[in-house]
Write a structure and sequence with these properties.
This protein has 180 residues and is an alpha+beta fold. Helix content is 17%, strand content 39%. It is built from one helix and nine strands, in the order αβββββββββ.
């Protein structure tokens, strides 16, 4: 009879231990809850992107914002613009491309240039796209054009334009040369 009593006692202890372990497991996530990350709304920004066919060709995007400090391969940032990708050109890629973005959408004048740094192909077609990104939305393309570069060292002002209130100022778009 003592064997049956000890088996029952061990069974009760095991059930109590199992209940204690289950409570601890259920309680652990509530002891120190994970911190909640506050939602930070990103400011809207402008992006200037260029792309060109694969090959041993290096084309650079240059952009200046309202502070009039040009950003490109040798000067990768200013108070208003950052160069995010500087592609040196590769025959192994499907497309070569570069992109620069503004930190926000300040009112003022902007200019976007392309510069042929190195090329074995002439003439070379370069697609230029300017878009605006607002938080939670896709890029909205506001300007797009394909330009042709013909000689190494050539720099073309693709667009000069003004922004006010996060929108293109009507009649402000031009291609008047503005070397950077």
């Amino acid at each position: 009879m003592t064997d049956d009593a000890s088996v029952g006692f061990v069974d009760i202890l095991f059930v109590l231990l199992l209940a204690f372990v289950a409570q601890v497991i259920l309680m652990i996530p509530h002891v120190n809850p994970p911190p909640t990350v506050p939602f930070i709304e990103r400011p809207p920004h402008l992006a200037a992107e260029i792309s060109w066919p694969p090959g041993n060709t290096d084309v650079d995007v240059w952009i200046s914002g309202p502070d009039h400090k040009p950003v490109g391969y040798s000067s990768k940032s200013s108070p208003s613009v950052n160069l995010l990708r500087d592609d040196l050109g590769s025959p192994d890629l499907d497309t070569n491309w570069e992109i620069a973005i503004t930190r926000d959408l300040k009112d003022g004048d902007y200019a976007v240039n392309v510069h042929m740094f190195r090329s074995v192909v002439s003439p070379l077609a370069v697609k230029v796209s300017i878009g605006i990104k607002r938080d939670g939305q896709a890029y909205t393309e506001i300007l797009s054009k394909t330009v042709t570069l013909t000689v190494v060292g050539e720099e073309i002002t693709v667009y000069q334009f003004g922004l006010r209130g996060g929108a293109l100022i009507p009649g402000s778009v031009n291609s008047v040369a503005r070397p950077m």
